[in-house]
Design goal:
By secondary structure, the protein is an alpha/beta fold. It has an eight-stranded parallel barrel with strand order 1-2-3-4-5-6-7-8, surrounded by seven helices. Helix 4 links the parallel strand 3 and strand 4. The longest helix is centred in the C-terminal third of the chain and has 17 residues. Bound molecules: SN-glycerol-3-phosphate. SN-glycerol-3-phosphate binds next to helix 7.
């Protein structure tokens, strides 16, 4: 299972990279805006910096929504660094853009996936990743994990190589449940990844070991 970090914050990307378990980064326009990045040059430079900090696939989302604009923008994003994955929204023109990039050998991530049908279409169009948004489904009382399980079944039935990139992760339990049902990748805030570390018995056990270690010297 791959671990991506879902942020445009450079300090958090550095911290996750330093942990040694990071396989990639995902961003979106909201995450870029949160970091105060604006203007084409600043956005391009920010992606370049992320690629220099982190190894693995770096998703960079197009800001436009028409086929012609998305392929122009995606080509420019892909030229920044070989690790850039062009992130395309799940809309009709997006399907065409996924096919265009797939035919060109440029990696893609189809975002804003909320149904199995959308995931099927994205896979047919050659997307390398699909991003089902777990937390946002949970927010409207729809079980996001069911969607991951449905997509897993469909992709396995037909040996689609598209990877399921579980997104909108809000808790460590989301990560564990994604691992149980076979999501290929999770993209998560750093806080949820670090929460996987914690257990009170680990803390109390270590405190005891440290105390006893002093008796040994
Ligand atoms: O990767 C998608 C993610 O950034 C959306 O997360 O928490 O805004 O639903 P959230």
């Amino acid at each position: 299972m791959k671990f991506f970090i879902d942020t445009a914050n450079l300090d958090q990307i550095r911290e996750a990279q330093d942990l040694g378990i990071l396989d990639g980064v995902t961003t979106n326009p909201s995450l870029m805006a949160k970091e105060g990045i604006s203007g084409t040059q600043a956005i391009m430079q920010h992606y370049k910096t992320i690629c220099e900090i982190a190894d693995g696939d770096i998703s960079a989302e197009v800001l436009s929504t028409t086929y012609e604009e998305m392929i122009k923008e995606g080509d420019e994003l892909a030229a920044i660094h070989p690790n850039i994955v062009v992130k395309i929204p799940m809309i009709k023109d997006g399907i065409k853009a996924l096919k265009y990039f797939s035919d060109k050998g440029i990696k893609t991530n189809c975002t804003l996936i909320f149904s199995a049908g959308q995931a099927l279409l994205a896979a047919k169009a050659g997307a390398n990743y699909v991003s089902p948004f777990l937390g946002r489904l949970d927010d409207i009382s729809v079980d996001g994990m069911n969607l991951i399980e449905e997509i897993r079944m469909i992709y396995d039935n037909y040996y689609f190589s598209t990877e399921i990139l579980a997104a909108s992760i809000r808790s460590p339990m989301h990560i564990i449940n994604c691992a149980k049902v076979g999501a290929d990748v999770i993209t998560s805030p750093l806080s949820s990844i670090l929460s996987l570390l914690r257990h009170p018995l680990t803390d109390s056990g270590l405190a005891q070991f440290v105390a006893d270690a002093k008796k040994l010297s």
